[in-house]
Amino acid sequence: MEVSLSVPKVVAAKLEGSTVKRLGFSAPIRVACRVNWVGLKAIRAEIAVEKNREAFRKEMVQTRMPVELFVGLPLDTVSMTETINNEKAISAGLRALKLLGVHGVELPVFWAVAQPNSPDEFNWSASLAVADMVRCAGLRLRVSLNLNGCNRLNVPLPGWVLRAAEADPDILFRVQSGALHKDCLSFAVDELSVLQGRKPIDVFESLFGSFQSAFKDYFGSTITEITVSLGPNGELRYPSFPPASDSDEFTGVGEFQCHDKYTLAQLKRAAESAGNPLWGLAAPHDAPKYNESPNNSNFFKDHGGSWETPYGNFFLSWYSQQLLNHGDHLLSIASNVFGDLPVQLSAKVPLLHQWHEMRSRPAELTAGFFNAGGGDGYDAVAELFAKYDCMMVIPGMDKSGSNPEFLLQQIKQACEKHGVQVSGENSTLAKKGTDNVRKIKENAQEGLKGFTYQRMGADFFSPEHWPLFREFVSGMERRQPDADDLPDGNGGRLSLSAGLESGNNRKMQAA
């Protein structure tokens, strides 16, 4: 028997005059698996693996509990019009992942999709349909509640929020040149009534409460983790990258973000309380621009830079504390809403390894982590996460350059100190001839609770990538099939001997 799934090419959708980019399945997809029918006791998965698989698996068993492996669904799985993009392709993909031994998938849900028209109107229909697909596939579900826009997809903030920003642009972060970051609200307005007379934290609490009510039948059984967005790209950080830039590609030092009137008012009050009102007039005047070298101006110089002066210490301490306050606001309401549910609360912290070898750590400072001069900018973050029993998700565990492993180790040590669980993500799909799979495996051996491989789509199932992913899965400790795994209806079970056929003959077939 042969089953072939073909998905037509996707045409960019138009919504209210803006183009919504599509990052999912953009070409015909055919998933190939060789399936054998076997008895309950004889079931096992046979996957092509690298020569050192068994040695690696034995080491994992001896030293750590198995890492829970998830795969991210396409960013545009749920469209702006509340439909499921490429539903048949995703359904086939879920089945393939289940057969391969993956534990679950991650579903990104954007604020503009869930609460598009007003603070009183919520729409979860397509997300509920995806949750049902995942449940039927026998997989777990991690839901990412993104309280931000997405530059890659041209997904904005909700229209009613953008209308509030038109009336008062300073509810958004404003860069020194005057441009606005339109993908997240300024942290300084968390507790101000700037959204149709409501505070953002109250709006978010209502959003979380609506999600809890809508998905009550899925918690614990299907939905096992909820990731709450704490800033741009879903991460706890300032939008220190240029507006509309891709955070995975930007490698500059970034800029401090305190130019909107609400953040400047907070800085002014802090400077006056410190007895130096002149320190509260603006961001550091001697800091470089986004893509300039940290040595182009005085602030970040390793020796004698302004960051080491009393003023620098004041500003960086205040700046990082505002980030922590924002994280506290959101994790507090998330914990209040989700704390009694049988799910894990989690949030992302970025791996800002560029320029990490400098004493001043400029990319980390502009993002809000005071991790310079011998200080530990992640200790207070880990303490905050521990306060709310929140797992820390660290993206970019496949990155290279600037020794990211040293920063990763520092973050892990802070989490271990405070008893915070850690999970990871990659930033790009594995590619032949690179060592990103090896890096992920190495990082996973050192205390990760879970790992989410980003992300499903046309390239994910391509003959260039799929074998690499199978190899990656084989190198991770996987669960054994459960008693309810994909019954065949005849007292048998499905066992996977997976492979993608070359050329144009990629098909799902039964042996």
UniProtKB/TrEMBL annotation:
Record flagged with keyword Hydrolase: yes
EC number(s) given by UniProt: 3.2.1.2
A Pfam family annotated for this UniProt entry: Glyco_hydro_14
Active site residues of this protein: 235, 425
Feature: compositional bias, Polar residues: 502-511
Full protein name: Beta-amylase
Transmembrane segments: none
Group of enzyme by EC: hydrolase
One Gene Ontology biological process: polysaccharide catabolic process
Family, similarity comment: Belongs to the glycosyl hydrolase 14 family.
Record-level Gene Ontology MF annotations: beta-amylase activity
Keyword Chloroplast carried by entry: no
Catalytic activity: Hydrolysis of (1->4)-alpha-D-glucosidic linkages in polysaccharides so as to remove successive maltose units from the non-reducing ends of the chains
Disordered as annotated region, ranges: 479-511
Lineage: Eukaryota, Viridiplantae, Streptophyta, Embryophyta, Tracheophyta
Signal sequence range: none
Sorted UniProt keywords: Carbohydrate metabolism, Glycosidase, Hydrolase, Polysaccharide degradation
